[in-house]
């Protein structure tokens, strides 16, 4: 980097963007200089043997589902990951259109989240707290999250649990809270869920999801009722099956303690639940005192332009289960936001071991700064060496600026791919930054096989997408530049050309 300003050390180009590598800041370079050539340098620990040799030990080291594959990442910023192909050593600039699966809403290496975590780590603040001991940060994060529900209830209407580690935990806790609240009414013991759903990998989440292998220890309980995926027909009206679901729930409302639903069923080829259905479901749940649970693992914290789906849709659940993007990949954290009526939790639920780690809470606080902006007083207190681009983004939050820009870029990308590959690619699906492209066989039928093929070959061409049943999932971080979209278009076009060859050979 060529410093254009002796006091800050960043160039005009760096300064205009809120995305930059922390090690370009002089204040950080001083700390890094102190560890250079020691075992604390970030390049350590060094491994004996080449990357090919490391990969050859996959079978010895890792269980299924966790073995690293043939692409090796060394660095990255925003939606671009600097990687290499292990077999050839060839460098690979990878456009990450899946926010690394862990849902890095801010992309890789967000400077603000890392800076806040680094500052916290360098202090003598506690890094871990048991649920019995208090500190400032949980109160601050709780208030900030609850503030996002202000428009849906008076003061004290909602409470939050901050002590879950992952999405499956938050789903289980939400179901427990709803079950607990229904305990005084013994007949109210059914749970409604939907075909096409995925709620996580623990046993409870397994029982209430369609997309699960299931069958661990016991078959699912007989009080979980699977309804058809809510849909509209070609004219935009709710289908007969969807109307029948609403009718059935209305008729038997007193039997149900909860309904759990994902607003966007990503594993179901990225299907958006019709808002009209959610509105009417909300009404039924209110009239029959059924707990309405939104599983917001995939959408919350930015992917549909808001922190919660209640803000996106105007429909507020009784419990929102939230995880993933809340830390943008900087540590595990899941939360449950619940109406006060669902506040009671029986032990041992509600406080997972390892959930008291402060770094994910620091990350959640920083992600909120990033998405919504800081308070004016805090913003005033930013150090002078924070580059102007980041300073400006922290003033307003990027949900009002970067989000609409990225959604427009994504619309353009998906539209262009549809133009180029009309016989392969169906109408784009999804909402906001959670999108999907259904891949079709030559006869026009949606194809799991081709979506799987695309997800398999994409890395080789420099783009990362996942399979979502018959669709490829496209769910980028909200920092997406025009040049990254251009590179993604190129890489996806080459991917789809190969998929076409597979289809038509
Ligand atoms: C909608 C939904 N719910 C729950 C989960 C489970 O989250 P976790 O993998 O963090 O347990 C996932 C994970 O992908 C998800 O997509």
From TrEMBL:
<dbReference type="InterPro" id="IPR005814">
    <property type="entry name" value="Aminotrans_3"/>
</dbReference>
<protein>
    <recommendedName>
        <fullName>Diaminobutyrate--2-oxoglutarate transaminase</fullName>
        <ecNumber>2.6.1.76</ecNumber>
    </recommendedName>
</protein>
<comment type="pathway">
    <text>Amine and polyamine biosynthesis; ectoine biosynthesis; L-ectoine from L-aspartate 4-semialdehyde: step 1/3.</text>
</comment>
<comment type="similarity">
    <text>Belongs to the class-III pyridoxal-phosphate-dependent aminotransferase family.</text>
</comment>
<dbReference type="GO" id="GO:0008483">
    <property type="term" value="F:transaminase activity"/>
</dbReference>
<dbReference type="Pfam" id="PF00202">
    <property type="entry name" value="Aminotran_3"/>
</dbReference>
<keyword id="KW-0663">Pyridoxal phosphate</keyword>
<dbReference type="InterPro" id="IPR015422">
    <property type="entry name" value="PyrdxlP-dep_Trfase_small"/>
</dbReference>
<dbReference type="InterPro" id="IPR015421">
    <property type="entry name" value="PyrdxlP-dep_Trfase_major"/>
</dbReference>
<keyword id="KW-0808">Transferase</keyword>
<dbReference type="InterPro" id="IPR015424">
    <property type="entry name" value="PyrdxlP-dep_Trfase"/>
</dbReference>
<keyword id="KW-0032">Aminotransferase</keyword>
<dbReference type="InterPro" id="IPR004637">
    <property type="entry name" value="Dat"/>
</dbReference>
